[in-house]
């Protein structure tokens, strides 16, 4: 039986449509359709129910799925091992990270280049951990790691959060230093409902609820937009200390908010991580976070006195 045909079937099961399977495999939709029909004829089985909502596995296909998935995982493992064996220790390493972590890496590319001669880094902004078992993304830096087979992670940073504002805004709004900030200041917040994101920090919900209930709130959907709005003087924002303390235009007006601590983990597939170039990049990135520990944890304290706590 031709594995290429089985790979097509696996993609159709995983995506639920010919067009999505075609995009995943880089083939045309008619080619996918012909492969499905040819395999059905060869097996003497109807594998999918065709409907307006896509392709749904028939009972016969459901019975074959455990074997198909085992073959797909074996094929993927073989490809990963082949890449490890062929890896010369140099080349492209693609790193995915959430908004704040991707900015942290991008601003430190010169240090990473110096630490990784022969490695070409690519940094992708992804809100959630992408598929790390293939060759499209090799490493991830995230606070929430899915429980998936083969994924391994290590803690590389604890990120503290506090309230910041543009110096000019804070100077004209002295209440930013007090608990009156919620009623009398403008706020820039991350629109979690709009984005549909999740957070592992359930204890921080009261903090987010208080921010969302502030008198004047601007909701934005990316970290870049939040930082741009903050630097324009749009109001106050609760952001990582490694972002706020590193920018001389911003002033920290609250103590660290312990409920908002984010723990960043460096994530890799166990097979991909054995590749020499991936292993080199992994250690260099971990060392970079370690070198910036004080900044990450908010210990690079500003000269201004701390304002009122967020949860007071």
Q: Helices and strands in order, then pairings?
A:
Blueprint: H1 3-15, H2 18-25, H3 29-43, E1 48-51, E2 54-57, H4 59-86, E3 91-97, H5 99-106, H6 109-115, E4 119-125, E5 139-142, E6 151-159, E7 161-166, H7 167-172, H8 181-184, E8 186-190, H9 192-195, H10 205-212, E9 216-220, H11 223-231, E10 236-240, H12 241-244, E11 250-252, E12 262-269, H13 276-291, H14 293-296
Parallel strand pairs: 3-4, 3-5, 8-9
Antiparallel strand pairs: 1-2, 5-12, 6-12, 7-10, 7-11
* Gross geometry: elongated
Number of helices: 14
Helix fraction bin = 40-55%
Proportion of beta-strand residues = 15-25%
* CATH homologous superfamily placement of the largest domain: Periplasmic binding protein-like II
The top level CATH class name of the largest domain: Alpha Beta
**Strand neighbour order, sheet with most strands:** 4-3-5-12-6
Describe the structure.
The chain is of the alpha/beta class and 312 residues long. It folds into 3 domains: 3-86, Arc Repressor Mutant, subunit A; 91-158 and 264-294, D-Maltodextrin-Binding Protein, domain 2 (3-Layer(aba) Sandwich); 159-262, Periplasmic binding protein-like II (D-Maltodextrin-Binding Protein, domain 2, 3-Layer(aba) Sandwich). It has 14 helices and 12 strands. It has a 5-stranded mixed beta sheet with strand order 4-3-5-12-6. The protein has a 3-stranded antiparallel beta sheet with strand order 10-7-11. Strands 1-2 form a two-stranded antiparallel sheet. A hairpin with a 2-residue loop joins strand 1 and strand 2. Mean pLDDT is 85; it is low at 198-203. Pfam families: HTH_1 (PF00126), LysR_substrate (PF03466).
